[in-house]
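Model: Ready when you are.
Researcher: Fold this.
Model:
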Amino acid sequence: MKQHKHAACTSIMVGKKAAQDGSNFIARNEDNFVANWPKRFFVQPAVKNRHETYVSPYNKLTVELPEKAYRYTSSPDANQDEGWYEEDGINEKNVGMSATESVFANELVLAYDPLIPEGVAEDSMTTLVLPYIDSARQGVEYLGKLIEKYGSAEGNGVQFFDQDEIWYVELATGHHWVAIRIPDDSYAVAANQIGIEEIDFNDPDNFMWSKGIQEFVADNNLNPDFEGFNFRHIFGTDTKQDRHYNTPRVWYGQKMLNPSIEQDPESSDLPFLRKPEKKISVEDIQAVLASHYNETEFDPMGEGKNSKKYRAISLSRTANSHILQLPKSSKTNVGGIEWKALGIPSFSPYVPFFTNASDIDETYSYVPEKLDMKSAYWMYETLAMIVESHYTEFVEPNLDYQKKLAQWARRKVFDVEVAAASKSGEELTRFLTEQNHLIAEHFNEATKEHIADLITKGTELSKLTFKMDPNL
């Protein structure tokens, strides 16, 4: 089976009691192995009476699709030759999913339950699950049944949430997985390695698992611990690559949300779950996803000897950074909000879109192969390239631009929630769809103006300049 280009991400989950506004959040940077990997963003319509078979372009997985599917937001690859890779979205039942966080099992467990090349992989997962589920818990169960029937082609971490619960699933081997309910007062950061720790098989309210996993581990003598069932110890890895590519991202995410706690960035024992020192806002989550070891010796934008030591959270090859938010239904009736940052998250704003809508905006669905400023993807890629080309001179104007738009976005969401309070049904959906277009228009205009300002300033920064000495 060919190696796909989607295999490097960072995920964050924040429980509603850990969040400043009482929302549940799931979020992820979708990273690839190439910098230029265009993504679309639009709404997949609901379907009825469908008779269709899904065939994966990536590995030919073949699945008969249900006749009925819910409407959902989708972020597929613009070029789908390698697969659909719909990645993330919220469906009309206010159930969200982000898939996947690539994770890797050790050779011992894989020897007894190898991956299934033609099984369920990242390219298919959102497509085969999100349109058919009514709750986060059902999402875990639905995915588990697919893995039981078809097997798993890869190691993957998958996030599900609704207004009540957040679940994180780690698919480790061909047929074995576990899932944990993220406590309401906690958050979790995951970075390309198995992170879930102790599993309590007497607590099905907070843990789920594949059929026969305890017998599989016992029969093959796979547990290295004298007692307990630590999924990370049994199924995970602990390598030099983990310590330079993976664990430092978890360390920095936890450093931002628990700054008083001192930890080793290369530690193999960073906890999966943490309670934050203060309540977490959507802006805090944005800051983590946009981070690159800021204000440390490991910042790749710096000049220190350790600036290239660790892989950062925000990268040039981050194709799609998303924060999915489900506010309390008692506070608002708008449903889900999907915050989307294209280009490099360090330089791009997070644009809020309402998911109870029939459309996002044509600038997000239009993604040609080459640069076109009518495309949101290419506009933000252009912005990132300009800012980084003169980082010292442009970083502050870019941060000012991001802060101004963040303030506008928060006020806009509030105003829409107030205006939507008296609406319901199709009227509410039409209203939120209109707001999506207005939001996109505002961000597009502000971004093009920012790009124009930077280019104008940049003309004075060329090295091909010369000033005559007046004394000559």
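Researcher: Now this one.
Model:
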Amino acid sequence: MSTTHGNADEPRDIGGQDLVLRQGEHGPDRFENPGFGPHRPRRSDVEPEANKRAERQVVALFAISVLGTVGFVVAYFAIPLDGTVGSIRASNLSLGLGLAFALLGIGTAAVHWAKSLMNDHEQAEDRHAQASNAQERQEAVAALQDGAKDSAIGRRGVLKGALVSSLALFPLTIVLPLVGEVGEDWNVSKFKRTMWTRGKKLTTDPTGRPIKAADVTIGSVVHVIPEGLEETEAPLDEKAKAVVLLVRLDPRDIKSEQHEGFSYDGIVAFSKICTHVGCPVALYEQQTHHLLCPCHQSTFDVADGAKVVFGPAKRPLPQLPITVDDEGYLVAQGDFTEPVGPSFWERLA
């Protein structure tokens, strides 16, 4: 590949056209509208068989959407949630695949319909003021009617049936989980308490080793669970609510506490469940004493009662009241004084 250099007065070929620019001259302020190139008809425009084949493909895509919705409904009732990780994983995977095919079928069918069956002639419209008069509104309605006529939906019975079926069934993927809980456990008081009780030792996660206050150095972070958590037969969600993050600060760095007497010699314990949407807060920055939620970047100041300093969370992390027993082990003084995690309909704050 070679490059030829010339002076400014020599013509240069750009896109098949000669463009001459002399020193002191400027290019044109506007270029003429080149217009549209020659229209190239699609196979479906000139071959009836190709047109029918495209129609069958669109019908098949809508059928995939219907099957995805049916699969979602079947999975919702066929896979019971017993609180185990396996059942949750199987349910989420099945429901997710059903929902994906339901949406994917509708979306790809609509795109394929527009690209292969509807009019593809290029059109241009000059910009104008957004406000429109009565005549322009009538023209807009006429354009919509022309679009419906162009889609030929009135003359394609099978295609119309597939479209209506997929759109009519798809809302089941949204409505069913909402109404499916009718008759289930609506006791919201369980959201207001966790497994922490007075005197329960704080142990390391996941080993379950009790923690002595003397073993926690300034700046260290320990992931904490209640003593005996692994041996209990509590549901998985109850175990998840009890996880705690323990941090030891220099007492001089503590600006304020949520509750007086909830910490011990600079050791503070806060719920790991973010008050935004419940993600685990686990990233600690030692210099700023900030805890970061990796999901949506909510940031909490451990030295200031875990108050929110950045992000979408609206409330501080609940603080677990702690003290030490006669042997120097860290123990809880009781449960959290407020519900952990995001809001629910009976939460006051």
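Researcher: Key takeaway?
Model: The chain has a mean pLDDT of 83.
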